[in-house]
Specification:
The protein is 33% helix and 8% strand. The protein is an alpha/beta fold. The protein is elongated.
Length: 260
Amino acid sequence: MAWCKELTDCALLGINNPELGDEHEQQHRAGLCKCSRKEPSTDLFKKVRRSEVCHLVYLHFLVNCQNRCGVLSHQVCDIAPREDRGAPVLSEKFVMKSLEADDVYPISDLTKLRVLDISNLPKITDVGVKQAVRFKELKSLYMVMCQSLTDASLVSVADKVPSLEELHVSQCPRITDAGVIYAARRLRRLTSLEIAMCDNVTNATLVALGTEKCGSLQRLDVSMCGAMTADAVETLESTLPRLQSVQKRLVGGASKMAVK
């Protein structure tokens, strides 16, 4: 799913975008929409242009493939809705009601999923992550360059994905010490943490990582974190001897990169 910039929370949740109105819902139930055709999903992707495929066909495709694929990344998707309508603002009440429908396929239905990559999806919000990212066996989660995500997403992931071993949240400008520290405390199997270019993550996170004795942590990337210092990183390295790799270039002097 990574780099499919037009995907919204609706794609994660497997529900219709409310901004598309009733027309799409009627077409879907009548079997006229691309997402409701009965053809094998693999044939469907060959026959239609990617710009014509709605969010739901992507989720249908994933559900059909879950027994053969434990990895969900940009290699299986490059689709977008017909036109850019912006990200829908979904309320918790609307989401909970929508998830009660029989024809809803949230990504959480992919029970065999081991790797999930939703990087660079600017329209994904905390609502989608909190309701859709809940897995018992997920090992790696990539949420890099997700500008709308906050600490609420990290808290939810830490509570609902205890099996997580790798967490990648670099270039998420709204994430702070509070979210990272909470995740580090809860995810006892965490071996890799990437928080590069997160300017709201400070030395407090490094202190907490050392204080919490995150004994499983082996890889850490804090490159270009402007609110950290090199001395604090070195102190953490001496505190956690199991750390095998620490990326710390330009710590304390981060330059902000434009994300397109």
